[in-house]
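Example record used in the benchmark description.
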Amino acid sequence: MANLEAADKMTSWQLFIVLIVINVGVITAPRVLAESGLQSAWMIALASGFVYFAAAYLIIRLMRLFPGQSLADLLPPLVGRLPAMIVILFFALTLLIPLCMRIQVFSREIAFFMFDRTPPEAIIIAFLCVVGYCAVQDWGTILRIFQIIAFTALPVMIFLILLNFVNFQAHNLLPLWPADGFTVILRGIPDAWRLFIGYECLLVLLALTRTPESFISTTGAAIGFKAVLLTTNTLAVIGTLSVKTTIASPFATMVAMRLVELPGTFIERLDNYFLLSNLPNAILTAALFLYVVAHQVARFWGYGDHRPFVLLLLPLVFIGTMSLHNLPLYERAISLFRWLGIFFSFGVIPLLLAAAWLQRRKQHE
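Model output (structure tokens):
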């Protein structure tokens, strides 16, 4: 019998599943977008999908030049050992800093809505134990879990988001077009980067995918799915709560869901069901980020096993998460990782792509 856990390749359909399961922060997204665009927040979500697909497209163009190789494999021959080490560190930070922030926020969500007497520290430790156990598995096992969640927890989460339209009031979205026009939308796109975080994993995932000719369509469909999901959720929440209430609510999606009532049913407190359906996505996203970073560090230093590096990264993630209890530090971290990620996508990747083209040109000469 084939060892499914040891599988190191996947199809384009499986890549699509992995990309759509990656958590996009739907609980906090309406507030993040409303702070930038007010009633036009949903337009920012939609426009951001096109912008961050462009970033993913640059990654695809780079990876197509090096089929079957991940970032750690292609960098040393392309730019040299030391620059390659710097880029790998840059790549790790673009995933680990937002990972720490997501864990911090998610622990607050769990503590606030479900275990109000449990210290966030205990929730973070339990969360990291589960994440670490998942991240030390082989890729075949992680992929199988992604597929299970895509057909169980994700549909439930989408269904609950759609239930927010029960209390939808169209006048809360007026004026439909912002007074400053496209300026407001363009200004909000950098803030939306944290909601699309995860496409950087393509630098590893594409090396595991068998069909390079479908990279663009698969990635485009996945990012389009995320953009539509964010747009739908933002419309539902702002239409239910109004812009003012959305901005004032750190977990606006949960607040809107508490207002949903289903007469004649035994179901109450839909916010708890939504949080539970979002939990597997959050765990898998964190596990994927840890796996990808550990995998790249292991490959760069010539190790065949990523598991020791997962165990080394877990204490660093815990320390980083705990340090973000400090609100000023948290705000600085938001600004740092936003511009760090944008620079990596639209600065570092194009430079690597240019270097690859120049190398190919010299080889043909």
